[in-house]
Structure to design on (234 residues):
């Protein structure tokens, strides 16, 4: 936002995410899926489990809709992205007592979506299912980031050559994995890629990077900058 306020628009951006798999340089990320979370509260009527006619079980109400949502293929993906994924992360209902029908059921879920879908299309598709099943619900959305894609061009070519010259590897382009700060930079920068060392210990206890991966990483960054600078100076 500060760059936008100043009117600055970087031509290229390299985000230092740990993108490599087995060796530094074997994979770069030229895009990422978007992420959008939702918190769904299905409302029922709490009551004694021995008198179900005096209650309305929100779990039972939700179950058919949930089964339908799990089976939906939201899009087909494209040459750079896998199909959009929808996953439930948490479900909570009930008081803990075994003889009480809960009054509501809360479901946390997340879309990891590609450029074939938009937040609006996914929201509309999901709410259509809920409405078709006649649920009484509240739904709150959080968009964590939009998808971005840098197609092969100046930046991708520069880092591919830098990796080959430094490591001898032919790097793979990928858009798999989680999100990164690249999703913010991509709003003002036309070419954004991510490149870093292997990520075998990512989000684990004792997360670390091997010292032996630092030297080739440094070399790739330097070679990439030199190539971009030479191209801009030509």
């Amino acid at each position: 936002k500060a760059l936008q306020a100043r009117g600055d628009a970087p031509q290229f951006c390299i985000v230092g995410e740990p993108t490599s798999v087995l060796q530094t340089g074997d994979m770069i990320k030229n895009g990422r899926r978007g992420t959008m979370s939702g918190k769904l509260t299905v409302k029922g009527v709490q009551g004694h489990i021995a008198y179900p006619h005096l209650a309305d079980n929100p779990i039972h109400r939700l179950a058919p809709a949930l089964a339908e949502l799990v089976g939906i293929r939201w899009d087909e993906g494209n040459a750079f992205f896998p199909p959009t994924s929808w996953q439930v992360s948490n479900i909570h209902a009930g008081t803990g007592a075994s003889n009480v029908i809960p009054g509501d059921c809360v479901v946390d879920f997340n879309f990891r979506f590609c450029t074939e879908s938009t937040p609006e299309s996914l929201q509309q598709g999901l709410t259509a299912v809920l409405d078709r099943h006649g649920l009484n619900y509240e739904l709150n959305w959080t968009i964590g980031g939009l998808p971005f894609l840098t197609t092969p061009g100046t930046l991708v070519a520069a880092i591919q050559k830098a990796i080959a010259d430094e490591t001898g590897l032919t790097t793979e382009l990928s858009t798999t994995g989680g999100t990164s700060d690249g999703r913010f930079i991509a709003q003002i920068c036309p070419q954004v890629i991510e490149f870093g060392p292997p990520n075998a210990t990512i989000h684990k206890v004792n997360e670390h990077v091997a010292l032996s991966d630092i030297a080739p990483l440094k070399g790739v960054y330097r070679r990439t900058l030199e190539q971009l600078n030479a191209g801009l100076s030509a």
Summary: Residues 2-33+148-233 form a domain with the Aminopeptidase fold (CATH 3.40.630.10). The chain has six helices and twelve strands. The chain has a mean pLDDT of 94. Helices lie at 2-6, 58-71, 119-132, 154-167, 182-185, 214-233.
